[in-house]
Automatic annotation (TrEMBL):
CDD domains: cupin_DUF861 (cd06990)
Residues covered by the (S)-ureidoglycine aminohydrolase cupin domain: 57-91
Entry protein name: Uncharacterized protein DUF861
Classification via Pfam families: Cupin_3
Organism: Actinomadura hallensis
């Protein structure tokens, strides 16, 4: 058994208008992302990642706030509190509204997120 607190993460990655805390356990890479109003992946993380779109594979849960996601093919969806989601590589995302969006990522997308 191994237990860690997200309040004492193994890694914290800061980027414009947000941050991600990451905890790594055997078989699990867990991230908690906080995106402030005005955050957009292509404006806040694109230069860090070095790709035109987010190429992480996300599986997660929205705790608060709203997030809009546009896939490479142009399809879009909006996520909100209580939504459990999968988002494949090749997407942009942005905060909708004036409330921060807090998302939990269980799918390994946190492993390389916002790392150069």
């Amino acid at each position: 058994m191994e237990i860690k607190s997200i309040d004492k993460p193994d890694d914290r990655r800061d980027f414009p208008r947000g941050h991600m805390e990451v905890v790594e356990l055997p078989g699990l890479m867990f991230g908690r992302a906080t995106f402030e109003p005005g955050w957009r992946w292509t404006e806040s993380v694109k230069d860090i990642a070095g790709t035109d779109l987010c190429e992480a594979d996300h599986r997660g849960y929205i705790v608060q706030g709203r997030l809009r996601v546009r896939m490479r093919d142009g399809s879009e969806s909006e996520l909100g509190p209580g939504d459990v989601f999968t988002v494949a590589p090749g997407h942009d995302a942005w905060v909708v509204g004036d409330e921060p969006c807090v998302a939990l990522d269980f799918g390994g997308g946190a492993q390389e997120y916002a790392k150069s």
